[in-house]
TrEMBL record:
Record PTM 4-aspartylphosphate, positions in chain: 64
Domain Response regulatory: 6-132
Record Pfam families: Response_reg (PF00072)
Phosphoprotein keyword on record: yes
Protein name, as recorded: Response regulator
Coiled-coil intervals: none
Keyword annotations from UniProtKB, A to Z: Phosphoprotein
SMART domains cross-referenced by the UniProt entry: REC (SM00448)
Domain of life: Bacteria
InterPro entries registered for this protein in UniProt: CheY-like_superfamily, Sig_transdc_resp-reg_receiver, TCS_response_regulator
Keyword Hydrolase assigned: no
Gene3D superfamilies: 3.40.50.2300
């Protein structure tokens, strides 16, 4: 089982972010966190890191769909346009149980899984095993 170096959480819900970070620490999931509160903030911060091919790029992104300013879908549409040498695992973590969202997620090659909130320590461990 491989530990993730950097996990990125893109979510506007401070309670979810706090809880997920706590679970990740308890599960020994990753060494560091990046947290962005909407897709625009994430793109504006990740794009220069990707373009410069810096080592501080996340290994895993937990992406919410419903956020203000730029939602998860808009983030994905921008993110896939950025050429990136490193493979970044993206998990959608959302409260949406809409079958259309699930079907839309399957259209993206770089989405590894679609998870319904809340996320448990056990589920994080399963993801870590999949990724490793």
């Amino acid at each position: 089982m491989k530990k993730v170096d950097i996990a990125c959480i893109i979510d506007d819900d401070p309670i979810f972010v706090f809880g997920t970070k706590k679970i990740m620490k308890l599960a020994n999931f990753c060494n560091n966190f990046m947290v962005f509160h909407n897709g625009e903030e994430a793109i504006n911060n990740l794009k220069p890191i990707i373009e410069a091919n810096e080592p501080s790029l996340p290994d895993v992104i937990l992406l919410d769909l419903n956020m203000p300013i730029m939602d998860g879908w808009q983030f994905l549409d921008e993110f896939v346009k950025i050429p990136c040498e490193k493979e970044i695992t993206i998990y959608i973590v959302t409260s949406s149980i809409d079958p259309q969202d699930l079907a839309r997620a399957k259209a993206y090659d770089n989405i590894s899984n679609y998870l319904i909130k809340p996320i448990s320590a056990q589920k994080l461990q399963e993801l870590l095993t999949e990724a490793g």
